[in-house]
Amino acid sequence: MQNRKLLLLIPVVLVLACLLYLILPAGPDGPTGNANAREDRTPTCAVENQPVGTNPKTLTVNPGDNIQKVVEQAQPGDTVVIMPGTYNEGVVVKRNNITLIGQPDGATRPILDGQGQIGNGVIACGDNFTVENLHLKNFQANGVLTNGPDGVVMRNIFAENTGEYGLFPVHSKNVLLEKNVVTGANDAALYVGQSDGVVMRENEAYGNVTGLEIENTSNAIAENNYLHDNTAGLLVFVLPDLDRKEASNNLVRNNRIIANNHENFAKPGSVVSNVPPGVGIILLGPDQTVITENEIRDHRSAGIAMVSLRTFFPERKEFDVGTEPENNRIYGNTMVNNGYDAHPAAREFGFPAVEIIWDGSGANNTFEQPGASSFPPVLPDNTWSPLVANAYVKVLGILRRFL
Fold it and tell me: What is the percent of the chain with per-residue pLDDT over 70, rounded to a whole number?
């Protein structure tokens, strides 16, 4: 009799254990291993700290002059004006409070042409740097790169075929990218990485691997941009092995993200070489991201995809960042004709062609997109209780392991 009672007790205990597992919230999402430091090959320059002058000057670069020589004469607070013409050089700005501005001739801007022989168009490391009204083309690495400044403005720049990135602020604060056009980047056209306090607005990107990328960056706003005919429209990523370990509190609103179905032409082995063609927005592990009021249209693989780093890097076991997307909200977007014919590279991730893809990872993520097709077919919204949402995520996690 006693043995029979014990046998009856076993399923009761198992049921209770399962209920507790489903009810109890998951532990905090954090690193699962030490950093596997990635070599940082981003160009740097040593800032030449000098006081801002009391009488700022305007220095002029005429066709035939060397821009770099004039820049080296500029003192903090000065403006360097580049007159119309073509200049076959790259420029490095090492002082604070320098403005580099092109003087347009009608619709034509001064051209910096690297002729496929120069790495970077413009590199700046000083605070309060502004660059405007330039046409950059044919560089090997980047169009405009800032590394380390507090206070960056990149405005009204046309960058074409500038290597990996068009506009590339990294390790920067208080950044504004506006009214720029970028094409031909084999990584990201408009990129901000390991930075804080960023506004990216009224830009256009087409014919790139990625139109706009927010990577390991917090407090960024991407709004009123037109991202079309890239491999993927917009990425919000947190990646391992970088100095900054988070991507949080970012806002993506009122952008036009249209027909990003270009074949992926990134460098083999780069992170974005794994991005499948035909996705409007990809969220890879970020926290507190809001995606709202965007027009997301005509993407063959998916309109929006939100996944864990463990889905994107299935062979990797340890990460020095939190891998799961948490507290993200997707609502009020216009989604039309997405997920109509998944690219083979998208099918390799094992998801069907739908408008919204979620791998079931993370916590407190909500979706309010009535009528949008999705995987899984039921998505949590803001009416779900934390208890139900938590249990649902755990059930999806179990299904992912065994299906």
Answer: 89
